[in-house]
Amino acid sequence: MFQVIGERINTSRKKVQAAVAEQDANYIQADVARQIDAGADFIDVNAGARIGHEKADMQWLLDVIVPIATVPICLDSPDPAILEMAYAMVDKPPMINSISLEKERFDTMLPFLKGKTCKIIALCMDDAGMPASSDAIVTRAEKLVSALDDVGFKQADIYIDPLVQPISTDITKGNMVLDAVRQIKARLPDVHITGGLSNISYGLPERKIINRTFVTLMMAAGMDAAIIDPLDPRIMATIRTADMLLGNDDFCMRYLKAVRAGLIKS
Ligand code: THG
Question: From residue 171, how far is each of 57, 134, 176 by CA, in Å?
Fold first, then answer.
């Protein structure tokens, strides 16, 4: 079954940034509750946007969110020190977002992860930057899975993020990531494949139709989790329908239930 990582608690969003600045705990808790009601399997928490405040903002957000979150939290930071603090604050095994092959981050995160109980998002990024070919994505995914295996991670707890890149400046970027996802799925069948979707449509108008169509293609290729806004009813309807069509919904039960709840309309 496809897993939804709710992306809304991110200080790059104006309302969330304002709520954090004003310490409006009610706003944050209500948003988290709505995401869970809408079907979020994880709540992503990213406090990176207020420069110099990331540690304090992450700490405040977790103080407010942990007591009311009935699903695990996805701790989203590029800074291993912040992830370490955040890991100590949660009450159920979290998802950690993320490790990459960038040397500093990799060398700090790997010993930290050893023996930890959590899920991990592994970005196909290294010190050379974004991958330039599907082979580069696959090679990086294999390196990450091998390193995580060495510190005790099962494939089923690893979520590879192949890094979606804008199609507006390079028309091959859609097929590049789709080919990579198919290859990762073939070589590492038990790992999950996730990521943000909205980079695909960067620089183009009517971005949501691009993102929705793209998630369908990515699901056909093997993506089984995504960082999205679960309060967007159209992308949620697309995902539920595609998940059924891909065979992940016995007797179409969840599809039928969602239709009866008014969540899916032609
Ligand atoms: N991979 C991984 N983690 C990630 C990303 C990824 N974490 C952050 C990001 N990408 C995914 N999260 C968000 C959160 C919010 C928004 C987009 C991605 C968002 N964007 C609005 C928009 O695009 O229109 C603008 C913000 C606003 O509302 O002001 O809401 O790729 N592993």
Answer: 38, 14, 9
